[in-house]
Amino acid sequence: MMTRREWKRQTLGLLAGTEAPAWAAELLLCHVLGLERPALIAHDSEVLREDEEARLNGLRERRLRGEPLAYLLGHREFYGRSMEVNRSTLIPRPETEDLVNAALDAFDAASAVRFLDIGTGSGCIAVTLAAERPLWSGAAVDISEEALAVAWRNARRWAVAERLAFLKGDVTEVLPFEAESFDLIVSNPPYVTEDEYARLAPEVRDFEPRTALAAGPSGLTLASAVVGAARRLLKPGGRLFMEHGWLQGGACRSLCEAQDWEDVRTGRDLAGRDRFLSTVRKSRPETQRPRSRGPEAENRQPAGARAEGV
Q: Reduced to 3 states, what is the DSSP secondary structure of residue 75?
């Protein structure tokens, strides 16, 4: 049997050529042994038990096949909070934190905001908004019940579940909410084109859910649907923030027709690349306001998951 230090040294050699092999080896050791990094370093001469070594070797083999480290660990940090992830959810990216910052900055911190997260996945956006703003509440929708179950657990972990409703829904259809019922809509929809999807790194293409990535030949199929849903569901003066690909800024702005939207802008990420659409729903004459087309969402759990149901 091997010591912790010997297993790490062996793993460094086997994972050579992958991203940050030393960091990955330490994270796997901490995960399996239930230790923080300082304790691992201080006691790296201890011998691994047979079951610990077997579990570590299994995780290492999955990493060698290209599976993302976040799925092996079962979590990824987002906005300073650990969020559960699995292969039913997209792994949160740092760029999405820029969208969250923009949404938080758009409203007074002391105001009560009702928001909707379309295509919530792991729930990282919705949970973060609720955790950062105790007076905010809202709903989150996704087409995957498995993803919604993960989002629900993240909401419970960060003590915001009572202010969030999780519902199964498809943004290409009519979502079950009253018209003009939200102050804010946020979304990180699939926006990868079919050609781009074929060229994605195997670590992404072969493991993360295709439905959370690909969006038709142009990559705008779901983005267009989100803008359409926001047109109906936002209150006059409400804000929409929607992530998109770094080459899609102009195309996403063009989805916002002048009679419905104002202050149409493109927000940039920390690398200076176009990253999200920001726009405001125009006020309309009373006679032009839409009728309600769906029942108000209720905070209930979907069948087969500890969550509510794009």
A: strand
